[in-house]
């Protein structure tokens, strides 16, 4: 007998590593969602920067239907046309020569880190194994990626973690100079820290990292899982800075809601990911690749990318207007449609308290740590939905202030 699932079913049947909101969305269109009771919400969360074209965008739905009636999955014993088309498109539109396809950002970063170490062994020897990343960074939930990520809470309690990992301070080049050396195989960095608080890197910082990597024969790895696929107003954020990494990782917006990840690199570096060194069962499957290809081809156009920059300005204007009335934010920052509003001293640590109030007002939003309200909506969210969503956010903030 068919039954309608409830929120209580989550607590009964699912492991308790998540704590979802009480509503259950059942339908989406564009930047709006409806729950089991038919209540409407505007989506500023975007599936945590995943739903790059909103919900059920016709371009992605058509790609899904067309490929879904042809071929879904083969395994990597064979290749397939959509995977080859996606890889070629990514190469033609970026610095890369080669692409490794997988199913998530964590997988893409795991591959990048393994490749960086393997490349160092192939060219310089096993002693060159140190990886430098940054405090408050986030690179995934595998044991390797949470260890490289700069938030110890995610790796505590899981036993010995991989060694040879050092953490510097984001946007502080001197802190990197104190750690880097000829035993460094890679520096991994987000062009804009996402989970760490929506903090863009300075151009000087990334330029300095590139120079340090060149000096010490280390690879520069850009984690663009959250900033990539149009999120910052360029196809990838490295283009905003004019700095070319050796390895780049992509996921989230890449699949527009379908689980797809990719690692991009040069011919020289890719040679170290030789036959049998790494793999992904679902990576490069035909269905996911067809959807990602449709997403990238739609996103990487002047209309969409310029629209992201225009929408960034609209979000900022609305947030600044709200802040002039209520004084809840200390700083509004970000690039493109990855935007963070840091809470003011009077509301320190209260960003999380906005989320349930926003849900009650019909708005979905995010946080980036306890002190930053985060927004990562569809790259093509209509301006009318921005205005209405901000009106709902203001009502939530009015309630927060009234109960302070």
UniProtKB/TrEMBL annotation:
Protein name listed in UniProt: Acetylornithine aminotransferase
Key words of the record: Amino-acid biosynthesis, Aminotransferase, Arginine biosynthesis, Cytoplasm, Pyridoxal phosphate, Transferase
Sequence positions bearing N6-(pyridoxal phosphate)lysine: 252
A GO molecular-function descriptor: pyridoxal phosphate binding
Gene name for this UniProt entry: argD
GO CC annotation terms, alphabetical: cytoplasm
UniProt subunit comment: Homodimer.
Known pathway: Amino-acid biosynthesis; L-arginine biosynthesis; N(2)-acetyl-L-ornithine from L-glutamate: step 4/4
Amino-acid positions noted as binding pyridoxal 5'-phosphate in the UniProt annotation, renumbered to this chain: 138, 223-226, 281
Note: May also have succinyldiaminopimelate aminotransferase activity, thus carrying out the corresponding step in lysine biosynthesis.
Keyword match Membrane: no
GO biological process: L-arginine biosynthetic process
């Amino acid at each position: 007998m068919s039954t309608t699932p409830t929120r209580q079913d989550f607590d009964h049947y699912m492991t308790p590593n998540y704590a979802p909101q009480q509503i259950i969305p059942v339908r989406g269109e564009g930047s709006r969602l409806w729950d089991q009771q038919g209540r409407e919400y505007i989506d500023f969360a975007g599936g945590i920067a995943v739903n790059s074209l909103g919900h059920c965008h016709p371009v992605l739905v058509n790609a899904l239907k067309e490929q879904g009636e042809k071929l879904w999955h083969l395994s990597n014993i064979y290749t397939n046309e959509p995977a080859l088309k996606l890889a070629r498109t990514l190469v033609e539109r970026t610095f890369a020569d080669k692409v490794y396809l997988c199913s998530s950002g964590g997988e893409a970063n795991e591959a990048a880190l393994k490749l960086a170490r393997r490349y160092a062994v192939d060219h310089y020897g096993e002693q060159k194994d140190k990886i430098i990343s940054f405090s408050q960074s986030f690179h995934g939930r595998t044991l390797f990626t949470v260890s490289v990520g700069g938030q110890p809470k995610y790796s505590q309690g899981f036993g010995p973690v991989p060694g040879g990992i050092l953490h510097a301070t984001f946007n502080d080049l001197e802190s990197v100079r104190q750690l880097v050396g000829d035993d460094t195989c890679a520096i991994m960095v987000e062009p804009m820290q996402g989970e760490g608080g929506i903090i863009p890197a300075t151009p000087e910082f990334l330029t300095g990292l590139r120079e340090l990597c060149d000096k010490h024969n280390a690879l520069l790895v850009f984690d663009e899982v959250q900033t990539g696929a149009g999120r910052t107003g360029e196809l990838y954020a490295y283009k905003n800075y004019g700095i070319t990494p050796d390895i780049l990782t992509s996921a989230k917006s890449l699949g527009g809601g379908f689980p797809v990840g990719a690692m991009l690199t040069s011919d020289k570096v890719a040679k170290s990911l030789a036959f049998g060194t790494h793999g992904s069962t679902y990576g490069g499957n035909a269905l996911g690749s067809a959807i990602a290809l449709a997403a990238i081809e739609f996103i990487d156009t002047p209309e969409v990318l310029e629209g992201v920059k225009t929408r960034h300005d609209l979000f900022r204007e609305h947030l600044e207007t709200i802040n002039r009335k209520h004084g809840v934010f200390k700083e509004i920052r970000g690039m493109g449609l990855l935007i963070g509003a840091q809470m003011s001293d009077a509301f320190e640590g209260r960003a999380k308290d906005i989320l349930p109030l926003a849900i009650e007002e019909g708005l979905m939003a995010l946080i980036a740590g306890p002190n930053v309200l985060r927004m990562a909506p569809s790259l093509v969210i209509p301006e009318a939905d921005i205005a209405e969503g901000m009106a709902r956010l203001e009502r939530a903030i009015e309630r927060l202030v009234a109960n302070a």
